[in-house]
């Protein structure tokens, strides 16, 4: 065997074992950009069960997720697939024309396969009627605006393998279903399509609109609700490299784009609008109630600026019992079913109209209470050993970072991965 062949074999073996050998030195680089949880190192011995029979399989999963330079390898593979083959390494992302990325979940709306049924439209109409009437009874008004999918505003960049529907889409059908209901429809598709002729209104690497698209729609919404618009305008550009679709492909920070920078005639709130429940006060007048999805993150600062008090809820069911002057439902085309098919809450579930202070007479309570029934002498401190109590409680069991609610919120908002969440 010649030296060249030996060297080639040695090089192959080195490449095979080097990622595993280097784990202690490069493990910190195994960050997750794939919108899933990386595997934890498995336990060899399971309490009350003995030897972990699934250790080998679990160890293999852990090794695949944590071998050295994994992130760099995943990113290099994604970049080669996207740039050379023009394909997405993630099934949730569609690689469109001209470096435009689309969320695969919206393809059904684009092709018409996700068409709302007549029964679904009837349910949505009934829910909207109930919400509108409940708000009117309290002197408030209900508004509904649907944010079109990116493929609805920019169909020209969708791959040819996705045929565009020939009939009207869900936005038009929902608008028709709202006729005669106590809800004011606010059209966002027309102003977005018109503005897209001059400036980009959606991000190429993200599912959402950019700041310009959000600001111009905020002006349209405020005008329709009888508020002073913010006179949004484009002034310059800004760099954006935190797209949620790029993140799903493992290319966050790699795929960058230029988006319009925006100026408005108002002081904007610095609150974190990715919070699922947010209340804030402003210098304006009136109370605003907003039910929104992830599109509310970018538009939130503009939308709340003219109000004295705003409450924004990113959750279901829609709770219309909150006090307000204007109530706005702002959801994406792809989320119509998620937000509008579920029966809303019309009354505060915590309000007890039958509660009467007179039912609880302090004097009667005092008479029934007998100090003698609680004799300190009957209580032995030795029965409550602090050391035993401390031993029974493990702080690790109460780790906020591991709670399902926190994990769910982070997954939805893309916390730590960018300004916009899926």
Question: What distinguishing features does this structure have?
Answer:
422 residues; alpha/beta; 3 domains; 6-stranded mixed beta sheet; two-stranded antiparallel sheet; 16 helices; 14% strand; globular; disordered C terminus
Largest sheet composition: 6 strands, mixed
How many strands in all? 12
Number of domains: 3
Shape: globular
Terminal-residue CA separation? 56 Å
Describe the strand arrangement of the main beta sheet, using strand numbers.
6-5-12-10-11-9
Q: Into which percent range does the helicity of residues fall? A: 25-40%
Query: Which residues form runs of ≥5 with pLDDT under 50?
Result: 386-421
Mean pLDDT comes to 82
Radius of gyration: 28 Å
Q: Helix/strand-derived class?
A: alpha/beta
Number of helices: 16
> What is the beta-strand fraction?
5-15%
- Topology as a string of helices (H) and strands (E): HHEEHHEEHHEHHEHHEHEEEHEEHHHH
Brief synopsis:
By secondary structure, the protein is of the alpha/beta class. It has 3 domains: 23-68, no CATH class; 93-351, no CATH class; 362-411, no CATH class. The chain is built from 16 helices and 12 strands.
